[in-house]
Amino acid sequence: MIRLFWLLSKRDIKIGWHGGSTSSMVVAFFIIVVTLFPLGVGPEQNMLARISVGVIWVAALLSCLLSLDRIFQADFEDGTLDQYALGPLSLELAVISKALAHWVTTSLPLILISPLLGILMNMDDRAFLPLIYAMLAGSPALSLIGTIGASLTVSLKRGGVLLSLLILPLYVPVLIFGVMAVEASVLGTGGNAPLLILCAITLFSLAITPWAAAAAVKLALE
Amino acid sequence: MHKFANPARFLRISKIITPWCFILTVVSMAVGLYWGLFIAPEDYQMGSAYRIIFVHVPASYMSMFVYGFMAVASAVGIIWKHPLADQSARAAAPIGAIFTALALFTGSLWGKPMWGTYWIWDARLTSELVLLFLYFGYLGVWEAIEDTAKAARVAAIVALVGAINLPIIKFSVDWWNTLHQPASIMKSGGASIHPEMLWPLLICILAFNLYFVTVILWRIENLIIRRQIRGLQIRLAEEGQNHG
Description:
The complex is a heterodimer of chains A (222) and B (244).
Chain A: H1 2-18, H2 22-41, H3 45-66, H4 73-77, H5 80-86, H6 91-120, H7 128-153, H8 160-187, H9 192-221
Chain B: H1 7-39, H2 53-80, H3 83-115, H4 123-144, H5 148-180, H6 195-243
Helix pairs in contact in B: 1-6, 2-3, 2-5, 2-6, 3-4, 3-5, 3-6, 4-5
């Protein structure tokens, strides 16, 4: 059971990294979105420093969103998803393995590249480590909640817009506490509490995602 | 509840209830609004501008009440697979979205003279806006999926996930506000409100509730009848094919 779970995760991670190099495209999108902000609001250093954390979080959210439809799409089209449903691994676990693969192929590269973007945005020196911690704590929730959205829209022809409409409101708490964790630790007002809440949101999503997403996948396969 | 789950029986009963609900809605809304807008005393600080609360507060309250209703109906639909529950949730969603939009609109009208701006990123305003997006997402599901039975299941999952997340969003936004903004200008109402203002407010809330009941009964009737028409059309088409 456990072995099968890791096998599935490994398969999806390999596809994410090799097949069409999804990860690198998402990272490129992430960098471009952040680059747009200085162009939009002007290159004034203080202003950039002030908005840097929020911009990086928003860009991470959007990049994550962009790659969600790939979680199930290919497997749904070529029938692999049917095999998952028939296979010995319960669909609830299979869904988690999908979310895990999405996190490794999308969120992890974003986290690794984010310090570089922090430099571009003139982010406060003290914000770099907290930003990485906050993203490590919050990004699994993005992948998990996103998996629910992806499973709900997989059988639709043009599910992309609907997917963002469904998912972005649910991303609001992660964004708020993600930014708060970084800013509070820079100001020295205790970044621990928001960080713990981020962990709580992640664990909470981990608890509801398997059931919701597996139910949605079953519907899509009907 | 199972007794009312039969669409035919529902139609029979709703035919009796709906006119009464309609009359009660009109009466209570007329009384509540007239009392609130003309009889209730002026606020010593805000003058007559405060009177918008007689629309604003019931609308905001209903925006959340309807989402709760939708979530419960969706849960019933998903557990007992009653088509009527799915239809109720579906029928409620646009009403809830309108209430939410009305709450935002009246709130911003009130905010202009009081706060000097139509919109501030206050915690309540923001969470209400997110609620509106949740309604849009839910309605989007019904739009996007043609097969009604399947759309009902998907929409139910969306409504339930949204319902679980709504308190989280609400309280995250509350926290976010305390860090970024000074204390809100709006003083907390509740017990501090004068009875002369409280009574019309309560009547308005009741009127909005009755309005919701009336409209949702109408809408469910409508959806049921539309489904029956579709069924008849399909049968007609089949018969036409058999003969032809």
